[in-house]
Amino acid sequence: MSFDFVERALKDLKEGDLYRTLMPIDGPQGPRVRVSGKDVINLSSNNYLGLANHPKVKEASIKAVESCGAGSGASRLVSGTMRPHLELEERLATFKGTEAALVFNSGYHANLGIITTLAGREDIIFSDRLNHASIVDACILSRAKFKRYPHCDVNSLERILKDSKGYRRKLIVTDGVFSMDGDIAPLKDISMLAERYGATLMVDDAHATGVLGNHGRGTLEHLAIDNPDIIQMGTLGKAVGSFGAFVTGRKTLIEYLINRARPFIYTTALPPSVCAASIAALDIIMQEPNLRDELWNRSGFFRGYLNNAGLDTLMSETQIIPVVIGNARTALTISNELLEEGIFVQAIRPPTVPEGTSRLRVTVMANHDQDDLKYAAETNKRVVLNKIT
Ligand SMILES: Cc1ncc(COP(=O)(O)O)c(C=O)c1O
Fold first, then answer.
1. Do residues 107 and 204 lie in contact, with contact meaning Cβ atoms separated by under 8 Å?
2. Would you state the pLDDT for residue 2?
3. Going by C-beta distance under 8 Å and a sequence separation of 6 or more, which residues neighbour residue 373?
4. Dihedral, CA atoms, 21, 26, 29, 33, nearest 10 degrees?
5. What is the pLDDT of residue 350?
6. 125 - beta bridge partners?
7. Is the C-beta atom of 134 inside 6 A of ligand 1?
8. Which residues of the chain have pLDDT under 70?
9. Half-sphere exposure of 145 (CA within 13 A, CB side)
10. Is the pTM of this model over 0.85?
11. Best residue for ligand 1 mutational test, from 44, 108, 211 (most atoms within 8 Å of Cβ)
12. Where are the alpha helices (DSSP H) in 201-250?
C-alpha cells in the first residue's frame, strides 16, 4: 500500500497551519508545568481544581494499587465488578443527587455509549452546533436523523422540534459548559422545550462537573433545575483530576446501558486505582467549596482584564476563556511567543473550532498563583494586541 495520500494530507495540514504536534511536558499537571526544561505558567489544563496532583488523590490511588492491583482484568461484565467501581458509582449518584450512576472509561466512550443506545435509525437527535466532537461522532454512529441547531438558539431548536414529525423518539443533546467557548447552555429553556415536544434531554457536563453550582454538581445545580429525567454525563479527567466518565439518571436507564451500551460492554474496565482517585477527589469537591470560590475569583479576574483590554472572549462565563484571534497562523504565532515568555496556552484551530475563529483557549485553575495570573493576563494582552491590531 502506498502512503502517498498520507504524505499529501500532512503537507496540506502544514501548509494550512493546521498541523498538530505533541508537546512533551515533565512532571505532573499543575498551575505550572515544565516544558523543554523550563518552568511555565499552565493555561492549558482542564485540571481546574488542581486535584490531579493533590496528595490525598495520589495517596488513594497508590493504596488502591496495593490492595487491588494495577488492572481490572476485563470488561466488568466478564471479570467481575471490583469494589472501587461500585463505590465510585454510589458516590457519584449521591454527589449528583440522582437515582443511579454508571462509570465509563472516558467522556468519549460515555457519549458514544449513551447516545447510540438511546437513539437509532427511527429516531431524531437535536444537537447544539458547538457540541463536543464525541457527541457529533456518537450521533453519526447512532444512525438516527441528526439535526444541528445554531449555538444556544432555543427559537431555532423549537422550530426544528415542531417540524420533526414521524420519528419514534426525540433526543436533545447539549454541552452544559461549552468546551471551546466557556459559555453555559440555556438549559431552563431547553428542558421546557424537551417537555413540550416529548423529547429526552441529555447534558454533557464534562466541564461543569465539580465546578458549577454551590456543591459543584454541575450545570443543573447552577441553574436550579431539578428534573430526574434529564440524563447527565460528566467526566472524571477534568475538574475531578483523575480519569474516566459517568452518566447519572434513572435506575432503569443505568440498567439499560449496562445491557446495551457497547462502549461499556466491549472494553476493559477502568483500573481500580483510577476509581479510588476519583472517589478521593469527589470527597474534596464536596468538602472544600472554597476551591470553587478560588476558581471563580481567578477566572473573573482574568476574563475581566482581557475584556477591559478590548479582547474578545465570546460569551464565556466560566473558567474556560477563549481569546479569539481569527486566523490559524496568527493564533499559532501568538501561542509560540507566549511560550517564550513563560506561558503555555494552546492555539485551538479548525476543525476543533469553526473556520476563522482560531483562538487561544485559556483555562484557569483554582490553585494558579495570583501573581502568575496577573503576569499571564498582562502578557496575553500585550502579545495579542501587538499581533491583531
Ligand atoms: C464537552 C466534552 N465532552 C466530552 C469530552 C470527552 O471526555 P474525555 O476527555 O473524558 O474523553 C470532552 C473532552 O475534552 C469534552 O470537552
1. yes
2. 87
3. 41, 298, 301, 302, 364
4. -90
5. 97
6. 146, 171
7. yes
8. none
9. 13
10. yes
11. 108
12. 219-222
Q: Which residues contact 122 (CB under 8 A, 6 or more apart)?
A: 144, 167, 168, 169
**Structure confidence by residue, pLDDT tens digits, 305-315:** 999 999 999 99
The predicted structure's pLDDT at residue 251: 98
Look at residue 389 in the predicted model and tell me its pLDDT.
Answer: 77
Is residue 84 within a helix (H) or strand (E), and if so which, with residue range?
Answer: helix 83-96
Cell, residue 238: 477534568
CATH class of 55-287: alpha beta
For 119, the grid coordinates are: 437513539
Q: What is the pLDDT of residues 24-67, one digit of tens each?
A: 999 999 999 999 899 999 999 999 999 999 999 999 999 999 99
> How far is 385 from 195, CA to CA, in rounded Å?
46
Quick check: CB of 107 below 6 Å from ligand 1? yes
Does 219 sit in the ligand 1 pocket, CB within 6 Å? Answer: no
Specify the CATH number for 22-51+289-388; select among 3.30.1240.10, 3.40.390.30, 3.90.1150.10, 3.30.70.3550.
Answer: 3.90.1150.10
Given the CA of residue 108, which atom of ligand 1 is nearest to it?
11
Tell me whether the CATH fold assigned to 22-51+289-388 matches the one assigned to 55-287. Answer: no
Buried (b) or exposed (e) across 13-28, using 16+ Cβ within 10 A? Answer: eeeebbeeeeeebeee
Q: Are 368 and 49 in contact (CB under 8 A)?
A: no
User: Which distant-in-sequence residues (6+ apart) come within 8 Å of 5 by Cβ?
Assistant: none
Where exactly are the structural domains of the chain? Answer: 22-51+289-388, 55-287
Q: What amino acid positions are annotated as catalytic residues? A: 179, 207, 238
Measured distance CA(171)–CA(135) in Å, rounded: 12
Model pLDDT, residue 78: 97
Amino acid at 377: A
What is the SS3 assignment for 227?
coil
What integer pLDDT is reported at residue 286 of this predicted model? 97
Query: Mean of the per-residue pLDDT values for the chain?
Result: 97
Residue type, 65: V
Q: Which pLDDT belongs to residue 1? A: 72
At which residue does the C-alpha cell 493504596 appear?
63
Decide: 106 in ligand 1 pocket, CB within 6 A.
yes
| Bond preceding residue 322 cis, omega within 30 of 0 | no
